[in-house]
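anyone seen this seq b4? input:
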Amino acid sequence: MGIQKERMINQELYLADDDELKKARKKAKVLIRKFNSADEEHKKYRLQLIKELFKNTGKNYYIEPPFRVDYGFNMSIGENFYANYDCIFLDIAPIKIGDNVLLGPRVGLYTAGHPIDSVIRNQGFEYGKSISIGNNVWIGGNAIINPGVSIGNNVIIGSGSIVTKNIPNNVIAVGNPCHVLRKITVEDKKYWEHTRNRYLSDVE
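predicted toks r here
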């Protein structure tokens, strides 16, 4: 592994104009192009491409095309992962996603950052900060998860939210900047269990 790739993965300042990183981005673009071009008759082929592209996947996962990713080798997804149309994963730094995570359309996971100082920024320096998403998380459409953010377990992120800070377990969070709206409670669980049971009785 070259020094620029190593620095990038380690979330240190690095230069993206590096032959090894250029080659890695090209490989990702080729796999993404194949994925986005495959039709509904080739779902198994799509899954194979994601398996080749990502660092880790669960056994059950599905991503609706089109989608975009910078490298893929920094992406880890758990069981029962689903991403709707037009999601973008900028995996300069590692993105780790747990089990039973749903992403709405056009969700962006952005680990990439650029120096505040314009002189340094114009010299091509970049850095990344990892993103972590726990288990049983639903992120609404057009939400953006910014670099360095950690989202806990059993969380709902409202559509259109801009998440700039960590979100704790068991909450609904919304807004720009995203903030905790309320906790997810036992009453929520009872309500949805009752609603499901009514559905089951209606369709029997």
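The mean pLDDT is 96. The CA atoms of residues 142 and 160 lie 5 Å apart. kinda curious what u guys think
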